[in-house]
């Protein structure tokens, strides 16, 4: 009697699929959904980060362009060499966010240096803490003292008795040297007593004239009276 034939599920060597429960199927679907959601969130975060970096780079580029123009204008006003802006080799910073941060820090430092240069240009090189009138008076007085010293030295070196008035020095002592002292003080105020920015006010010409054309002859007369006994 022939043996009964086996069905396909009962044949040896063939894979028989196992039934999947509904709970296992839903768990697998939930895990796949979480993975997909996480991947989408990561992609969205990366896109947002790229947009922020692109915006930050554009803002920094605009700031550097404005800053470069400001530095060029400031250098021209201060009669200084033009700054070299750009053409800088990129540094080894792999993180774009860190590179932007360093760029912003460097731009802040450049702004601070420009502000310091502008502030220093608004102060005179000589005696910056004094008011303009007091500074001008000191410069005129220094020039007048120097001129008076020259006048007295010429008097001492002139031939003849010290008790005799050297009439050949009178025009120089009363007019020539005071005029030279006045113009020396006027020039010194223009070179050292006035800031490069802001003007710095007047040169106090009337005050300088009074110091040089009145003070120097008075000192010379006092010197003559002292030498004549």
Helix-strand blueprint:
Blueprint: H1 22-77, H2 96-121, H3 132-157, H4 170-192, H5 205-227
Helix pairs in contact: 1-2, 3-4, 3-5, 4-5
Transmembrane segments: 137-157, 169-193, 205-226
Keywords: Membrane, Transmembrane, Transmembrane helix
Molecular structure report:
It contains five helices and no strands. The protein is mainly alpha-helical. It folds into two domains: 22-83 and 94-121; 132-227, no CATH class. Helix 1 (22-77) packs parallel to helix 2 and helix 3 (132-157) packs antiparallel against helix 4 (170-192). The model has no long low-confidence stretch (mean pLDDT 78).
Unreliably modeled segments: none
Q: What is the count of distinct domains?
A: 2
Supply the number of helical segments. 5
Annotation, overall tally of beta strands: 0
Radius of gyration: 44 Å
Quick one: overall form?
rod-shaped
Query: From N to C, what is the helix and strand string?
Result: HHHHH
Q: Describe the oligomeric state of these chains in a short phrase.
A: single chain
% residues in beta strands? under 5%
Q: In a few lines, what is going on in this structure?
A:
This protein has 229 residues and is mainly alpha-helical.
Give short descriptive properties of this protein.
0% strand, mainly alpha, single chain, transmembrane helix, 229 residues, transmembrane, 5 helices, rod-shaped
